[in-house]
Every structure is written in C-alpha cells, then in structure tokens.
Write a structure and sequence with these properties.
339 residues, mainly alpha, Membrane protein
Length: 339
C-alpha cells in the first residue's frame, strides 16, 4: 500500500480506466455544439468554435463564463443524483482498493474538467491519440489538480493554456515552455491525487463532513464538493485566456520553481454535513434552474435554422453522422415536445 500511495500510478490508472466508462470521456465536437448553442446564436461562430476553438471563433468572455457556469451546475446536479449512480455500468469497479462511489466521484471530476477545458479553447484531447497518451494524462492531471487545490497546479494550467502572443512568450524564460519544467509539479499532483483516491485516506477525510453510507460516501459528496472544485478550474481557465499577461506568467514561473521540489498541499473545500433530503432538494433545485433556462431558450428555437446548422457541421466534417442524428432527434423532441 505504501508504494501504491507514494506513486502517481493509482490516480493515473483510475483516470485511464474511468475514460473508458461511457459518460466520462467527452465528445468535444458534440459537447461544444450543445453547450454553445444555448448562448451563441451565430451559426458561423459555433462552426468556427468547433473547427478551431471558441476563443479564436470570437465568442466573448461573458458568454463563455455563462456556458461554463451552466455546465458546472448541470453536470454536478445530474452526477450527484441516485439515478445517475444506479445507471453507471460496472466499469467503475475497476480497482479493488477503490470504492465505486469514490471512483464515480473522480470520474465525474474528469468529465467536468474536459468540458470546462473545451469551453475555454482546449483542442480535442483524444484526436488521434490513445487514452493513456502521456500528454492527455498530464493535461488532465493538471486540471484535476486545480480542482483539488494542489499548489502549483493553477500555475501550470495557466502557463499551458495561455493566450499570450508568440512575441510575448519569446521574452519569457524558454524553459517554462517545455514539459520538463512543469513535469515535477504534474508528478506531485499525481501523487497527491493518488493519496486521495486510496480507500482509507479518502474515507477518513470525508467522513467528518459528508454522510457515509455503507462505508463509502453518498452522492452529497459529489454535489457539495464538485461545484466549488469546478468553479476553481473555470476561474483558472478564464483567467489564463482573458486576464493573463507577462507579469502574471513570470510570477507563475517563479511559483512553479518554488514548489517543483515540494510535495504540494491539498485543499479541498467540503461543506457541512447534509441529510439525504437536503441533498436531493438542493440537487433538484439546481436542475430546475437549468431546465427553466433551457425552456426559455427553447421558446426562441428556429428548428429549420438549427437543422441547417447541424447539416453544415456534418458537411464540414466537424461532427459525424451519428452525432448529427442525435442532435436532430434532440431538437425535434424539444420542438414538438415529444416524450
């Protein structure tokens, strides 16, 4: 167990296995189409956002922040529900030392991290690469590190996600732009997350503040900690894209140098304990808020225009026929109010 905890392999194994479970790995193109269509009505911008990224497509910070907030609320509320947990396939029972609820919790963290990254301009993490590709692993570990408050993680994410110009980057230490510079931090994040994943330490840390059922954490753990964790990553990514300059990057480089030899500090924002009814009521309230907004947007839907946009995306090769058919079916159900 000691070797397992000290290496970053426990979390990496969980992450790779989680991404093979339906519902954890995010289809970037379909997700961006669904998420952006709620707030952006310019079909060209949506098309460009999928082919390049939302920022290069000209979608402003205010809109992307709205999309991100909606995504955090909806993903968290859905994932904390008993129906979601009951519907999960057996893939989460992937390691004997990790309870299913804990694996679900980290699986949903990984899903939310991908969604937020795509909103703020990350390229497709899985485009032509294997799930266990080192770049994919390191990028996701950094994102999850931000969500868990690991020192050094936010700095790494801001640097690797920066929108600074090439001219500005040339004025900064070139070592900061290489993988070898931030790899020690990534490795430390992996170690810390591995400690969190292991059965004993995770249950011990959570049991004081979250109801424990049968030795594993209930859905309240997901609802009351995943939301603030998602907000941490959202704010970090938004800052790196819209409010980041050379001076801030220099400070981040100095911080990484300072912490690269340390083990980092975990800081997870848990809340007070809540009973099951409170959890369900709050979860339902968030979902209702999302659906009210969804219904308001649907009142202004132009079904012909939406179907035409979908067709254009297929013709441009940005989404495949299978995804297009799913989108069409969803549009038709909403428009004609079919069950």
């Amino acid at each position: 167990m000691q070797n397992e905890v000290e290496s970053s392999g426990v979390f990496e194994t969980l992450m790779v296995n989680s991404l093979q479970v339906p519902g954890v790995k995010v289809n970037r193109n379909k997700f961006l189409y669904d998420a952006l269509s709620r707030y952006e009505h310019d079909s060209k911008k949506i098309s460009n956002a999928i082919s390049t990224n939302p920022i290069d497509a000209g979608i402003d910070k205010k809109t992307l922040d709205k999309v991100a907030k909606y995504t955090i609320n909806k993903t968290t509320a859905i994932s904390s529900g008993a129906s979601f947990a009951a519907g999960l396939p057996g893939g989460f029972a992937m390691m004997a030392s990790i309870p299913a609820d804990v694996a679900q919790y980290f699986g949903m963290s990984i899903r939310l991290a991908q969604e937020l990254a795509y909103i703020y301009g990350e390229e497709d993490l899985f485009n032509g690469t294997e799930i266990d590709d080192s770049r994919v692993r390191q990028t996701l570990i950094a994102y999850i590190g931000v969500m868990f408050g690991v020192q050094g993680a936010s700095e790494v994410v801001r640097i690797i996600s920066t929108q600074l110009s090439k001219t500005a980057l040339k004025r900064l230490p070139q070592k900061a732009l290489t993988k070898t510079f931030y790899y020690p931090i990534i490795k430390n994040i992996g170690k810390i997350l591995s400690v969190k994943v292991t059965k004993d330490s995770f249950a011990k840390g959570v049991s004081k503040v979250i109801p424990i059922v049968g030795g594993v954490a209930s859905g309240g753990m997901t609802f009351f900690s995943l939301r603030p964790m998602g907000k941490k990553l959202q704010e970090c990514l938004s800052e790196s894209k819209f409010n980041y300059d050379e001076n801030l990057m220099k400070k981040d480089i100095e911080t990484i140098e300072k912490f690269s030899e340390n083990e980092g500090i975990i800081d997870v924002e848990y809340t007070d304990s809540f009973d099951e009814d409170t959890i369900n009521n709050k979860s339902e309230s968030i979902l209702n808020e999302c659906y009210r907004e969804e219904t308001s947007l649907e009142k202004n839907i132009d079904i012909k225009d939406e179907l035409e946009k979908c067709k254009e995306l297929v013709e441009q090769g940005l989404i495949n026929e299978e995804d297009a058919n799913k989108i069409k079916n969803e549009l038709l159900k909403k428009y004609y109010k079919l069950d």
